Amino acid sequence: MRTFIKLLMAFWAICVFAVEINAQSITVKGTVSSTEDNIPLPGVNVIVKGSGAGTTTDLEGKYQLNAGKDDVLLYSFIGMKTEEIPVNGRTTIDVKLKSDVSQLSEVVVVGYGSVDRKLLTGSVAQADSKELSNTINPDISSSLQGKVAGVQVNQNSGTPGAALSIQVRGQNSISGGTQPLYVVDGVPITSENLGQISYEGQGISAISDLNPNDIESISILKDASASAIYGARGANGVVLITTKSGEKGATKFSLNSYYGTQQIYKKLDLLDAGQFKQYVNDIAADEERPEVYSEEQINNNPVDTDWQDAVLRIAPIQNHQLTASGGGEKTKFYASTSIFDQEGIIIGTDYTRYSGRLNLDHKVNNKLSIDTKLNISFSENNRVPGDQTINGVLPNAISKPPVDPIYDENGNYVEQGFWDNPVANGSEADNVAESFRTLFNIGWDYRITDDLKFRNQVGLDYYHLMERRYEPTTTRRGAQSGGIGVSANTRVTKLVQNSTLEYNKYINKAHDITALVGSSFEIINDRFDFIRANNFPTNDLRYISGAGNIESATASGSEYAINSFFGRLMYAFKDKYILTLNVRADGSSNIAPDNRYQVLPGVSVGWRLIEESFMQNQSIFNDLKLRLGYGKLGNDQIGRARFLSLYGSGFNYNSQPGIIPVQIPNPDLSWEVTTNTNVGMDMAFLSGKLQLTADAYYNVTTDFLQFRPLPGSSGYAGFDQNIGELENRGLEFALNGTLLSNDDFQWTTNANISINRNKILSLYEGQPIINQGRGNNALIEGQPIGVFYMLKSLGVDPSTGELVMEDVNRDGLTNDQDQQIVGDPNPDFTGGISTNLNYKNIDLSIVSQFSYGNDIFNGTRQYTENMNLGSNDNQATRIDRRWREPGDITNVPKINGRFNNEITSHYIEDGSFFRLRNITLGYRFPVEWISKIKLTNVRIYASAQNILTLTPYSGMDPDVNYSGTSGIRKGTDFFTFPVPKMYTAGINISF
Amino acid sequence: MKKNKNIYFLTLICFWITSCEMLDVDPPYDTILSENAITDKRGLDAAVNGVYDGLQSGAIVLDYVVIADIAADNLRAAGSKIDYINIDNNDSFSNNIYVEAVWNAHFDVINRVNNVLVNLSSVSGLSDAEINRTEAEMRTVRALCYFNLVRMYGGVPLRDEPVAGASNEELFIGRASKSETYTFISDDLETAAQLMEGSGKGSGLKVDEPTILALLARVKLYQEDWPAAEAYAKSVINEFGLELDPDYEAIFDENSPSEEIIFQIDFVNDNDINPIAKWLLAAGRYEAAATEEIFELYQTGDNRFTVSVGESNGDYYANKYNNLQNENDSWIVVRLAEMYMVAAEAINEQSYDANSEAFDFLNAIRDRAGLADVGPLDATNQEILRRAIALERRKELAFEGHRWHDLVRTDRAMEVLEITNPNKLLFPIPQSELNTNNHPDMVQNADY
Q: Does the pLDDT of residue A353 top 80, yes or no?
């Protein structure tokens, strides 16, 4: 370690002292306007090239900043072509910008800084607020669905406020965390689901605490050369979120509101009461029992409950936000408050978030500036038990026979049959999760010289989740226990410090150098308590204090710390040849002391062929850049102290305390390391109207951390070990086109497609890990993560009506030896197409998303089509096509078939889908109308979300997974809450 | 330039604030380093409680108990549990979750026992009596676990040392034979009996002397060592002042522990629940229903009838576990009535005699049930008496985890349950064990 630090110091010394310091600062000012109409442009970014220092123009298009005499200034503005103008000692520079939709002029946020996209050598995708604003979801990740090549976003569940799962370039880990690192304004934040009461795949998203409308841009670092600067936690990609800042000028207010309704996209076709009775009779006949219902009872159905209708509803969604921003020479601010409220389409579910943000930037003097960002949010999330319990609302609504009534004649809930009354469970029980979140950070920028900048940033992320459940005696389960209550608190505090020293120099108009060194540490502590109790005196007392019997009570906590040193060197020669070096050393308390520090480098080169002389005479390309990157990334997300031999507490007996051995030691526990190679190409054609970015990558994760199952006979379930290798390789293409662009009419479209192939290269001693979850997902060498491993159904035997299973080992028996790989939950390719049309004051945007080649285990059908559980369970109308007599050719087996309720490929379906995510039509009122009432902008819009899904999948929604973000239990629908379709109308007003 | 250098220096200091030591964090606060866990009497007592806590596992107090009746003819799978249905059909796959859970739960307890035993000699401040008592308790619990395992799976891996690391030698152990397993069980129980000799009856919530002898009686019965079974059963009946509870229903009343119970696993204020009532009652989840056959078996006037089986709207349900509200029904490991049944059977198996004591032990149970005596005129030969004892045993111990094992033990399972393949009398070894245990002797049972 010490050697390393010495080396690092030497590295700094070289960076800091080796280059001659030669800069005389002058103040440059001027006006930026548009070439077309000479109108001044407010909000243009003016940056001293290579330094990141800069300003934006005010309402009159004026700017002023300090720059070196020999510096080059970059003028960039969305929709305009970036201009590069050398200062040459001038103090006034007026600039005219040409219209250009080229994204190549963007400044891209990368770790601990930003870079001109032109000079970017890593693979980074960026989406700005304009692209993000349309999607209606409390979780910002949702707006990335279908938008970014190489980023697969799955909704998992339609539960309001629920966590989405995001995979950047496939899954690079299995149990060591599979979700990317989220960094908000430079501070890594808590993003995992920390709920203690399980609602299966409907986890709580800690990202939901961030109001999407406060977000300026999202950058996704996809390859090692980009994310190595976040080293140890970059293996799953890094999502950098930048929030909005105030702009200099008169205070601007804006009001954004929308309101809409949501409803189920597709109900399941289930038997009605008459059909159900006939089915029950058919079972009885099959079992040679007398018929249960007479002909008259079948035809006469006083009770015919459509349980789906009983628990589903048309639910409102709304959001209201007021923002003020502005500032003067020294201080700028952005302030916003918002209320988001979404009711779920299933009774008993809703999500409400109140959030406020204040971002302040203050310039103390020419050397020192301070920025602070404060986000406070409070949310209340009401969920209902999900798919893994027999008191789940949607599962019961699907399973409960239509002959059961909801209420008796007195209006009380009727509890009969196997399944609880879902209306009672949805309406009567409390399932509240309240989160309080504070994100605060303060940064100090000190410009030591014109070229050298020191920045220190301290951040705090405070997250408190309070969960409460109460099942009153008006529910069946509650009645059995005199009421059941749970109270749980989870608190996570994260303290982050990072310091960077950045050096920028543009030498002789040719050598562009940026060097950055830094260190950071994070200290995270978790605290939790959990109490479960029953026997309450009345349903009016719903908190634990009322309970007569405490069933269990626990409280504990843990610590986690990570300590890092990092550096980046970027060198560009005449914007032609670009070299980027990243290195990061991380130490993590999660890793065994002997392996604690890991050094992770990244290197990438870029070659802008377009600048070469031999390219000057061609007219095909307007830009052409080759990128090549290589690097290593780590992952330490494996829980605390997994390398120690530990006893656990709370294993009590007869009111006496008990302890037991819970963990065998693994002193070799080490980092999971992903090695990544990336080749990319950025191209622009037709005067920049068509841009294509193509990337190919190859990731190998070695020593991936996996809970290695031990033989049950050892007494342990398993332990964490670095046991295997897996690879992800893929191709990504992103195409942006400007189909039309003139004064009245702009039409842009972009499309992306990603192909990822995931393969497990090795597992511990080659041992497969099978039977994971409801869909029997498995980890098998040579196969993608989570393949479905089960008996393979060959169809229904016309002579017997039985499902026939392939007898793999030809021993004449059908048993576990005949299990095989029958499907893959990983898609062959995913992507999206979106388009934006502007005609005068009218705007239209359409966003679509697709996924092809992924299989789904439809666990719902294992129950709704098994015809094997007697009169307990309602069935799908599909069973009408079942085999009834020899000779019937059908794919639905007979009643009481041997394999009807086994996990077999009979229930595997193609989960490919194409979904129209969002269509928004807006109208901007002409300025001459609204300026009379002192408004600067009024836009109204209507939007429709998820209104069309094309899929062969027979379930409610192909974009679900009952197990949420699990790394193994994938692609399984088990009575999962579907994503609703949504219609909204909204208004944006600025003044 | 000089001034700038000072600033660089300050900056470097700033970086150095971060130090390496901060990575040495405490383990999670609900855990303790193993080396500090069992060092004194408090730690030892807690580790012993941890062993009993292991016996509270749902796979033992619920699944193991219920499976014995589902696989046989007292219960049938009636709910959503597909894995119960397969057990009901006597056709489980090796990935059956109960087959796996029962295996893992028992070995978990065995490992906890072995951890206590290996640390016992190094605990400070213990008397010899305390050491002996702890060793006896631990060996008995280990024997109980192995006995449960051998009945269900046949021979299993035998461990008398804890797993301390992850070496293959420690992790991979092959299956011993069925007879080696029984020898291991007997050794543990006989050693325990010596260590605890004369210590008498305890609270019934932990292993005591009669518990050890009762388990020995049961094990000897399974080994068909009739004289030994008879002797152990009689010593339990005679030497500890135990009495059959005159009120059969009171045995299953959580609130007033019955004198008849020799050893039970209790659920009070210990962060654990036993939801067996929820599983079995028609008013609960009703995952397993009583069969019509067992319902019909009880005659009117048998005061075990309604205590054992209930009926609600034509649904039959096991009624011995009632604590739906607090989910704290005890698991009765062994009670006195079973010793009477063991004695009766062991005596009859040695020889039939019209004056046989077997009648006395059988009739003691029938008297308590409110039924007329069975005499030599009713049971005129050994086979008839054998059947009478078996029937009485079924009715007396219904839903207490005996039926399947009794049928298998007495070679009647195939006939009674219409099982055609004798290899299906053993459950499969869990697939997870086979996948992770690379020992060449870790093999699956035949026909799985």
A: yes
Cα A684 to Cα A103, A606, A619, distances in angstroms: 10, 16, 11
Q: Which of B25, B111, B173 sits opposite A561 (nearest CB)?
A: B25
Total number of domains constituting chain A: 2
**Beta pairing, strands A913-924 & A829-839:** unpaired
Residues A245 and A361 sit within 8 Å (Cβ to Cβ): yes
The complex scores an ipTM of 0.91
**Shared domain check, A465 and A339:** yes
Same domain, A321 and A192: yes
Domain annotation covers residue B249: yes
Cβ–Cβ contact A21 with B under 8 A: yes
Residue A423 DSSP code: H
Q: What is the DSSP letter of B62?
A: I
Q: Which of residues 217-256 of B touch A (CB under 8 A)?
A: none
Interface test mutation site (partner B, options A112, A659, A721, max chain B beta carbons within 10 A): A659
| Domain limits for position A16 | 2-100
Residue A569's Cβ-side half-sphere holds a number of Cα atoms within 13 Å equal to 12
- In this predicted model, what pLDDT tens digit does every residue of A873-891 receive, in sequence order? 899 999 999 999 999 999 9
Task: Estimate the crossing angle of helix B226-239 against helix B209-222, to 10 degrees.
Answer: 160
Domain region containing B355: 38-268+331-413
B269 touches chain A (CB under 8 A): yes
Query: How many residues are recorded in chain A?
Result: 991
Same domain as A541, residue A451: yes
Helix (H, G, I), strand (E, B) or coil at A794: strand
Cα–Cα separations (whole angstroms), residue B389 to A603, B232, B247, B345: 82, 18, 21, 7
User: Rounded CA gap, A107 and B345, in Å?
Assistant: 88
For residue range B223-258, list pLDDT tens digits in order.
Answer: 999 999 999 999 999 999 999 999 999 999 887 778
Number of domains in chain B: 1
Whether residue B278 lies inside any domain: the answer is no
Of A141, A335, A320, residue with least CA distance to A239: A141
Window 158-217 of B: residues touching A by CB (8 A cutoff) are 159, 162-166, 170-173, 205-206
B39 touches chain A (CB under 8 A): no
Element (H, E) at B291: none
Looking up residue A713, the CATH number of its domain turns out to be 2.40.170.20
In a domain? residue B303: no
| Cα dihedral sign, A963-A966-A970-A971 | positive
Q: How far apart are CA A778 and CA A773, in angstroms?
A: 9
A765 and chain B in contact, CB less than 8 A: yes
Min distance B132 CA to chain A CA atoms (Å): 20
Residue found by looking up tokens 């799953």 in the block: A236
b/e sequence A552-561, b meaning 16+ C-beta within 10 Å: beeebbbbbb
**Cβ-based burial of A535 (10 A; exposed 0-12, middle 13-18, buried ≥19):** middle
The length of chain B is 448
- Interchain pair A664, B156: CB under 8 A: no
Question: What CATH number is attached to the domain comprising A70?
Answer: 2.60.40.1120
* Domain CATH for B112: 1.25.40.390
In a domain, B312, yes or no: no
CB of A816 within 8 A of CB of A845?
no
Q: Find, in chain B, the residue whose alpha carbon is nearest to that of A391.
A: B285
A residues 31-60 lying closer than 8 A (beta carbon) to B? none
Q: Is the minimum CB–CB distance between B26 and chain A shorter than 8 Å? A: yes
Q: In what order do the strands lie in the sheet with A95-97?
A: A62-68, A25-34, A95-97
Residue-wise pLDDT for A846-859, tens only, equals: 999 999 999 999 99
Residue A336 predicted with pLDDT over 90 = yes
Strands A484-507 and A452-471: antiparallel
